[in-house]
# Entry
Amino acid sequence: MSLNWKEINCILEELSLPGMRIQGVYQSTYDILALQLYGKTGCSRTPAGTCTGPHLVIISISPLACRIHETFRGIPRSKKPLRFAEFLKSRIVGSRIEEALQLGSDRIIRLDLRRGDDRWYLYIRLWSNAANVIVTGEGGIILDAMRRLPKRGEISGGFYQPEARLGLSGSGLASSGDPAERYGIRDLPGEGSFNSRVDRWYAEHGGKLSLEQLREEARRIIARSMERLEGGLERLRAKERDYAGAERFKISGDLILSRGMEKAPVPADAAGRGPLWLETESFSGDEIIRIELDPRKSPAENAEAYYEKYRKAKSGLGDIQREIAAGEKEVELLRHAGAGLLAEKDPLRLERLLVRLRRNRGPELPGMEQKEEAARKRPGLSFADGEWLIMVGRDARENDELLRRHVKGNDLWLHVRDWAGSYVFIRRRPGKTVPLDVLLDAGNLALFYSKGRNNGRGDLYYTPVKYLRRVKNGQRGLVIPTQEKNLRITLDQERLKRLEGTAL
# Structure
């Protein structure tokens, strides 16, 4: 149940927000915001009907429970500071509410805020299908939004001034007749002001309203993740079947060497460079085998190509089987974690878990909290690039700390040439070579966190940590690399955006 426009007006009249000061801002989840206010306001808890002191006004933009009201209960605090709350703390804390009004009957509240010579407008749009909280300057330029919606232009630097669209005067009164007479103020159970009854009602029912919606979103994300994992497993199994037949590559090479000079019945290619196929009997003589050839190569070279496929298949089969086992384990963990996610009864905790899923970081699996705790203790930034860990030091202290305490000799070190910047490390995995895609990810991070970022491209060198030599009596973290290789990087914004979602 979201509040209708008449109920919102009733709440605002009871709270009497003008004249109050904003002392604090709290954000427990991505759709729940609370303002701590100080001043005299309507109150059902005192005989006089008003009280002076700190008040906690909650703003919810949850689709099924859009509302604003004073709450007389504590709200949970997020373990990690959330972006919009941090923005509000830097701007509006300490400001005075000069005016608080609803724009006509459109369920948009505008708080006019002033702190010294600075003035802002805090818009609270309580639409069930498109709720948002937006802060603008006096000219309607958006400073930030609780939900950044680029398609609606609701991002920093965009424009938002709903008064003009609604044809409202500065007082917020509708310029035409009231189109919504059918709405009324519901008679909620209990005693006291409408505000206190709304608070009690949502305390009892609000969680249930959003819980099923959150579960449905969890089902969709888990289904997509399961489809992706199972698709990857099917591709690995196909490669396993291909690698399991490695012996045929060796037989093909042997047949080419032993019978490659025989005249093949298959014609040469258009350039007359040699046969495209070799058709010959098997060594047992019970079947005809057709072997594809590269017409540009001699029989010996074609045979060597098949022997190379044989060696690659033999050595790669074990790796493929280990990846399949790891993938099957991940599917099972996802299935188990998904069941636990859908059984969660606390909507606030479920929302926090969904944040991970929305960022493509997967559900909370056993041991994940310990890994994230380790990442918080590690200096700098950490990114989970698939099965690989990338660490970034943002200054000399973090570079030195990572180098001394958090990397080993075979871990890979990257740094931009000719510019000051971050040390980037890729943690090695036993028996694995760093994939090119992971190397490019780390290279983009090294260039992005350097003074050469504005060039958009640059050269990097990389080498294992064991080939770094500290400069005697040099600056903190200063090293000289040896046996380094070069990497040319052009900044890829899509790659950086993807990496942002993998930050630990």
Notes: The two ends are 36 Å apart (CA to CA). The chain is about 35% helix and 25% strand. Residues 194-244 form the longest helix (51 residues). The CA atoms of residues 393 and 399 lie 5 Å apart.
